[in-house]
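>> received
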Amino acid sequence: MLATVILLCKQAGYVPKQPSKHRPVFAVLATAVATTAMLALPVTTNAALASNAKQEPTLPTLLASGNRAPLMQIVGLPLPLDLEQFRAQIDNPARPAWWRINVSNASLSSQSSVRDSNNVLRERILQDGEMARLDITARWMSGRRSGVVLNVPLIAHHSGNMDQAIERWHSLFGLPNSNRDIRRRDSIEYVYERDGQELMRLDRNVSGLGDLQLEWQTLLGDDSTAIKKAARLGVKLPTGDKNKLTGSGAAAAHAEFSAAGVLERIPAMRWQLSVGAVWMEGGGVLNDLRRPAAITARASLAKKFTKKWQLQAQLEGHSRIYRSSTDEIGRAGLQLSLGAGRALGKRSSIEIYFTEDVLTRSSPDVGIGATLRHRIASN
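>> returned
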């Protein structure tokens, strides 16, 4: 994971690079986004919950993972935001700001082709490479029950060095290795062709600022209910570079409804379910193939074993995003994330996780990540 952070810093120009065959990349400029707070819903604060929030650290139910396939992560899928931590932020009388840093690295290696009844090649796709991503997310309270969220991603597509380790992992657990054996290890090449025309190619190490995401989040319902609910509305701004696959070249909007609670039959077992949709503007990468909208869903479980330690499991997926007959971009995505978290005092926590594709090829073979969360101020 440290290597991933160093890679992102090098690609962004913050760490001097050693001479290499890779092309130089630009430094990432600071970006400021002004937001306007929306009117909050009326609420009566639950003093008991606020007291508990101050006494015990709040560990998240959700992992900060997502589909990091190069053509999926640019469309504007909703961020994984934890409802329980949002509730703790609201209940705290200090109204603290909150931030999260998530660093991840995902590896892909697959290719396929589609032919018609006359054996004429219609589609060909190759996805072979790795993607390192650093997401800096912050939330400020905009009302008594609502907050504004900003996510700034830094993305690096690179040749990587995980191929051999992934092949050993698959062999150890009897998992399919797809068609990794027919390609050179630790290389980068993303190509998509349709009807003899090459519509997308990336075959060099690149990096840069991704598409910013801005959203408004609010709690719903009565504080006295055991199941907590929230709604989110957000937009994705085309600040990334479509030629480097750090952005889609088009804006998008999303909406999501979430519910969270505790399983009564299993002590200290928390759950969160989310369902939403993303609407994509025309233009940008593979515009003629991209569907106008997609459905998203996420299901998470977290089990505390001590006051500070927990294990987490998460399934996350989405409906088809592109009109294609290839598995890589033409089918729905579904991946499993498993992780462990630890509270670092009352205001901070850290999680480490890995991901594995459940529907093969439509999400990365394997991914790893680490997340640090912190409330800036607290009573």
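>> DSSP finds five helices and 15 strands in the chain.
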